[in-house]
Specification:
Blueprint lengths: L2 E8 L5 E2 L15 E8 L30 H7 L8 E6 L5 H14 L4 E5 L4 H11 L6 E4 L4 H11 L3 E5 L16 H18 L2 E6 L12 H5 L2 E6 L6 E9 L7 E7 L2 E4 L3 H5 L9 E8 L2 E13 L7 E4 L3 H14 L7 E7 L11 H13 L7 E4 L1 E2 L5 E2 L4 H10 L4 E4 L11 E3 L4 H8 L1
Parallel strand pairs: 4-8, 4-9, 5-6, 5-7, 7-8, 15-16, 17-20, 20-21
Antiparallel strand pairs: 1-2, 1-3, 9-10, 10-11, 11-12, 13-14, 14-16, 18-19
Length: 445
């Protein structure tokens, strides 16, 4: 008969401890250990002995993926949903996770796939309201309002859908555990049960997870280790664009991303992100175009900067879509290695479209946009820039130069300011390769 014992688990990282202590040794968080009831079963193993298989004798199975009906979603998944896989989708509240999942269910329904949508946060009538707003195909979508995991899996086993959707994992609980829904032990236990169910029945499952204020999926890190695929839906909640990014994928690459635009009818695929992001471009001082890489796909993004004399003793450094610490560093380098003095200037940087970019290639466009605003002089509208900036003011080369510049050439740009000595083939752009910030400013102005 199963027995229960107490264990203390960190609510931040999920590390277990035999007794309570003030600080978690794994993540260095204070007062995060919570007492949990742990179920210990006397049964060990299934009693079934299997013979090991010679790896050389096995044939490689080509997974018959289930197409979601969305090219952007299929791109991130590696070609579609693999039967028997467990997919975790995370994102900020209100970013569009439930909308994306319901639209995916609608597309699958059009292809005669049976969907079981389990919701612990909303009632079936609320899902119906969203479905009507999105004008979803409801022919093969079945809704279940249940939060107990054993009842959910029992219904799913009897119903035998092609895809199971659980919205969200934090609202589901196991009755054999005494802790509250959303607790560390509950999330780990429930995810393990769903994963085991998926592998045994070959039913693909999609679970939605909330994120913490730090941007990580709520619950223990083991949650991301258990599932087969981890996707994040990113973007500004009040902006138009959303980026679906793969963080983990056992069946494909994590270098892909999907671009969507939030409209009244839900998330719409953006076939040409560069054209969409530059459609309302401002031709003024402080504006530079940057060829960014989202996964393996290049897209052109407008970078804007504004400088103004500070009324305070310490100048402000504010960003949207870019690392504020990196901006502080670049402002210091620009002041030290060029004639531009920002010691009494507030600096504001914005990445248009609500995107969040972190790649080092963005350094040079940031520097040029700040200098352009400081000088109140516009940079040629047909110029793109990319390059990494070092502390001594040198400009270094970046990866995927060919893809980036071909995208710029496709949209009619004539000139590129790039770092290093790139080896570029079949490019009609006028390429300038300054070695330092000072040289880049002379070329730009």
């Amino acid at each position: 008969m199963a027995k229960s014992s107490s264990v203390f688990m960190c609510s931040n990282c999920g590390a277990p401890y035999a007794r309570w202590q003030g600080k978690c040794n794994e993540c260095d968080s204070w007062n995060t250990l919570e007492e949990q009831k742990e179920i210990i079963s006397g049964k060990r193993g299934s009693g079934t002995v299997r013979e090991p298989l010679l790896l050389k004798s096995l044939n490689r199975d080509n997974f018959l993926r289930i197409k979601t009906g969305s090219e952007e979603t299929d791109r991130v998944l590696g070609g579609g949903i693999v039967p028997g896989s467990l997919i975790l989708i995370g994102g900020d509240p209100g970013i569009g996770k439930s909308t994306l999942v319901l639209q995916t269910a609608s597309n699958l329904s059009k292809n005669n796939r049976k969907i079981l949508y389990v919701s612990g946060e909303e009632s079936p009538s609320q899902i119906k309201i969203r479905s009507d707003r999105l004008k979803a195909n409801e022919e093969n979508i079945y809704v279940l309002g249940e939060t107990e995991i054993n009842d959910i899996l029992k219904t799913t086993f009897d119903f035998k859908p092609d895809v199971l959707i659980v919205d969200s994992i934090q609202t589901v609980y196991a009755s054999e555990l005494s802790s509250a829904p959303g607790n560390v032990s509950q999330i780990s236990y429930i995810t393990g049960k769903i994963l085991e169910f998926c592998k045994k029945t070959n039913i693909a499952s999609i679970i939605i997870g909330h994120v913490t204020k730090e941007g990580a999926i709520a619950g223990p890190r083991v949650l991301e280790h258990l599932v087969d695929v981890v996707l994040y839906l990113e973007g500004d909640r009040y902006g138009h664009f959303r980026v679906l990014r793969g963080v983990k994928n056992r069946f494909g690459s994590t270098n892909e991303s999907g671009i969507f635009e939030m409209v009244e009818l839900g998330l719409v695929e953006v076939k040409n992100p560069s054209l969409a992001l530059l459609s309302e471009r401002s031709f003024s001082a402080g504006s530079v175009v940057f060829p960014a890489m989202e996964g393996t796909r290049p897209m052109l993004v407008e970078v804007q900067a504004l400088t103004s004399i500070t009324p305070f003793g310490y100048p402000a450094r504010k960003t949207s879509g870019f690392d504020a610490n990196r901006l502080q560093l670049l402002s210091t380098v620009l002041t030290k290695r060029s004639p531009i003095n920002l010691s009494n200037q507030d600096v504001y940087v914005n990445i248009i479209g609500g995107l969040n970019l972190k790649e080092p290639a963005l350094d040079l466009p940031i520097i040029l946009s700040i200098a352009s605003s400081f000088k109140n002089t516009m940079i040629d509208k047909n110029t793109v820039a990319l390059g990494e900036i070092g502390l001594s003011g040198e400009i270094r080369s970046v990866n995927n130069i060919d893809k980036r510049l071909k995208e710029a050439e496709k949209l009619g740009f004539k000139k590129a300011i790039v770092g290093g000595k790139p080896k570029i083939t079949d490019c009609k752009l006028q390429i300038e390769s300054p070695k330092t910030i000072a040289e880049a400013l002379k070329i730009a102005f």
